[in-house]
Amino acid sequence: MLVVLPAGLETAAPAAAGLRLAGTVLAVAALWAGGLLGPWASASGWVLTALAVAAAPLGVVRAVATSGAVWLVAGGMIVGVAVKHSGLGERLARGLVARIGGSYGALLAGIVAVALVMAFVMPSSMGRTVLLTPVVLSLAAALGFRHGSRGYEGLVLATGTACIIPAMAVLPATVPNVVMLGAVEAQHPGTLRYFDFMAAHLPTTGLLRAALVVAIAWLLYRQRPQAAPPQDPRPLTGPQTRLLLILAAALALWATDFLHHVSPAWIAVGAAVLCVLPPRPVLPAPRLAGAVNVKALVLVAALVGLGAAVAQSGLATGLGGRLVERLPLDPAAGGAWDAVLVAALSMAVSVAVTTPGAAAVVTPLAPRLAEASGLPLEAVLMAEVMGYATALLPYQVPPLLVAMAMGGVPLRRGAKLTLAVAAASVVLSWPATIVYWRMIGLLGGG
């Protein structure tokens, strides 16, 4: 494999194995950027290549095998299948959306609110998208929005966007977040906590961006419904009630991890075990066989391994040094400008390698960026999230692509919404986030 390394990088990892590993990392980044292969094919190809050329050291393999991100996704998949199999997800979605009101704006607000609420109880953005989109499609048909109409496309796009962008405020709720968590655990265990992460992001990345999605979708796609939203008066079933209790317990444990210090991954695994535990499982054993999406697990495992490889191969050190030289980071500026620069870097990388790839590539650079900016490592990581949560185009966030495919919405229509939401996020959400972080002391008071 022929790989051209940036000038000066060759000194960061002189060992042949380190150079080979750096080469595989650059190759998979090029595949993602060029869109030649899908994310899963590129990721699995990287795993096979790294093993074939003996480039992956034992530390990388161990980081993947013990990564909380991988186990978090596995547990979340089983919980997500239980939510879908029991009918709880569809019931919650229909019930909440139906009660929010009949106007187009209220309908959008209900859909986005449901998506954000589900981020706390169903830790899989793809699972939420697959579950919520058919409900919204049925709701659109019941309200008289014909396929391809402006109002129809607005509902579909708002659903896909809300299932991923505001959900970045919840640590276990998106693949980029869990990939970042896995990369951080490999190098700096204990740095990220569920409650601290949510406290830093929920008001702005979560609630404010959810409001922006509603407002922009209303401005671009508003159309008067032709009928009232349908009601769902059915009572909860036994499995749905048990699943609600399991989810409530998991959410309580996630929110109090600063007290018990149990990883969100093991809480998700515990919830998954309770879902399949006899004698009255919420998810019967025959359904469990198809619960785990192997492709998604391979993708997350490869991304976690990619992050560990970037750190251990010397690529992070070399690339981090060159970025530090070019970014106008200034510890004397008080942290706000440096946080914006880190966010801009993360946003730019996500354009090239999608949001999960950005989490894998930028996270290993965080220590160097923290050293150059004078920011705490946690602040750099939070700024990274602010950046990759700002998706310019639909291909950067696969759940939105899935919603568009399910609803038959053209790519150019989705790009109009994502560009508008991204611009509004940079202009409104980013400054609000910086001010809020100053208030809570994340950036310091200088």
Automatic annotation (TrEMBL):
The chain crosses the membrane at residues 12-33, 64-83, 104-122, 128-145, 157-179, 199-221, 242-259, 265-283, 295-319, 339-363, 417-437. It comes from the Bacteria. GO terms for biological process: transmembrane transport. Residues 48-383 form the Citrate transporter-like domain. Signal peptide: none annotated. GO terms for cellular component: plasma membrane. It is found in: Membrane. PANTHER family: BASIC AMINO ACID ANTIPORTER YFCC-RELATED. This is Di- and tricarboxylate transporter. It comes from Caenispirillum bisanense.
